[in-house]
Amino acid sequence: xxxxxxxxRSVWVDQQDGWSVHIFDQTRLPWELDILRLTERDQVxxxxxxxxxxxxxxxxxxAAYGLAxxxxxxxxxxxxxxxxxxxxxxxxxAINLRWAIERMLARLRPxxxxxxxAAAYDEAGWICDEDAAQNxxxxxxxxxxxxxxxxxxxxxxxxxxxxxxxxxxxATVDWGTALAPIYMAHDAGxxxxxxxxxxxxxxxxxxxxAWELGxxxxxxxxxxxxxGGHLMQHGMxxxxxxxxxxxxxxxxxxxxIGTYLKALAAHDNDVPFWVALPSTTIDWRVQDGLAEIPIExxxxxxxxxxTGRTADGRIETVQLTxxxxxxxxxxxxxxxxxxxxxxxxxxxxxxxxxxxxxxxFPEQA
Length: 365
Known about the structure:
Elements: E1 2-3, E2 6-7, E3 11-14, E4 20-24, E5 35-38, H1 41-49, H2 56-73, H3 77-88, H4 95-108, H5 113-153, E6 159-163, H6 180-187, E7 192-197, H7 204-216, E8 220-223, H8 228-233, E9 239-242, E10 246-248, E11 253-256, H9 259-268, E12 273-276, E13 282-283, H10 289-292, H11 301-304, E14 305-309, E15 315-319, E16 332-335, E17 342-345, E18 348-350, H12 354-360
Parallel strand pairs: 6-7, 6-9, 7-8, 9-12, 10-13, 12-17
Antiparallel strand pairs: 1-2, 3-4, 4-5, 10-11, 11-16, 14-15, 17-18
Helix pairs in contact: 1-2, 2-3, 2-4, 2-5, 3-4, 4-5, 5-6
């Protein structure tokens, strides 16, 4: 995608600068466009933990490059296994992270230490290229769903789409998952408008999704997290599209906290609720999302404080809650498959069910 007409991916390697890895510091968006240069494993791990880089597909890709950086320091068996385990443990809910590390190890373990660094960069590059291609395909399949609604709306109708959190190109290597169909619909000349949930407590919708859509020229409106049900009740939402950090083989969906409530409201108001994901986000080893998906519990300060830009341009963090008030901060929730209209993958759309996923991915089922 582009920023100021300059094409970017969300992660890239600078071969002229010691094969360093570059990412956008997402904690500085939308106020500043800072690019981080990563040269060692601990910098990558810190960037993932602190959410300088986030989004399930993207953290998998960045972690893969993190292992490549680690191997530059020590490519021996023991060090490689240690570094892989450290990177895999930085975020527990997003399955893409574990998938990427396991794929890297499958490529690297049979090789002698002297060949591992080059192979690691090569494999991480393939992971990035495949993610971009998968997300572009997701966009094409999801576009058809928007086109169907637009056809019913007529020439003057606007398709209103609600999304939660950020599942755009900044959360993947390129294109995004939930936002890819929206970008393609906009570029195809369809009239689309996006309701952007603020997505407390880290406000990924208000800061990242709104920034992305605005940069691309897509009409959008930021709303409080609790406004979605009201909008659906009054016929102001034609469909919901969200991303996900993990989908079970039965179709349960783990996504940013608050997604479950949107799914309940959509179900009650007969609004289609679609989840967009590359197949790398499917955890074929898990059946029951509520019982088996670990939910990351993040620090309470994310709830009790908020960061923004003051009138004079300073970036400040302020306290929201009274001194002494505790805060709980589960980062994700699980939406049962029964509330999901369907899944949009790189191979097409399917029911959120074991049979639906098996139909698209028989080699996995």
